[in-house]
Amino acid sequence: MLRAVTVMGAGRLLGANLRARRDEQGISLSELARRSGIAKGTLSQLESGAGNPTIETVFSLSNALGVPVSALLSEAPSADLVLVRSADIDILSGEAIDLRMLRRLEHPGGLFEIYNQEVRAGAVQHSDGHPGTEHHIVLSGRLRVTSRGRTEELGEGDYLAFRAGGPHEYEALDGPVRSVLLLEYPPDAHPITPGSPHLPG
Predict the structure, then answer these.
(1) Which SS3 state, helix, strand or coil, does residue 46 take?
(2) Distance in angstroms (rounded) separating the CA atoms of residues 76 and 196
(3) pLDDT by residue (tens digit) across 133-155?
(4) What one-character DSSP code corresponds to residue 121?
(5) What is the pTM (predicted TM-score) of this model?
């Protein structure tokens, strides 16, 4: 019998995973606040599941803990058939981007995160950088991406990949953009979490 994975809200998932990762590493809320630049009170709210995390907040926590974003926002898959309805997933919003994480794929060669990405017109999304490579496929609209001093404009059906370690930014041109974002992490980018498919439990 095929079973589908249920989707928990992003806030509750983040809270549970954030506390688990912090406990695994033996660090206090105060230390995580220092590493991430996020106030201790805000972190306490996030861990309780009561916060409203932004893209910037989640990426700051990811970098501070040395884990991929999906380690904070996903449940472990346990089904033969995985069906994810985008409308059922909480939106993670930033300055100009709305992200829904659809799937985390882990294998011996690395880790992939698949996102439904929408870029709003009239603002620019800045990123200070993070581990891995970003792969973008534009489904509709025109997207301007700047990375490492180079700017490219993407139209419907276009694909772009770049190493995301340095500052980069996105801007929707002529209206909103719908796209797929695939984040690819090499095996050594983050410590592998216990119980992952390619390590002993």
Answers:
(1) helix
(2) 9
(3) 999 999 999 999 999 899 999 99
(4) B
(5) 0.62
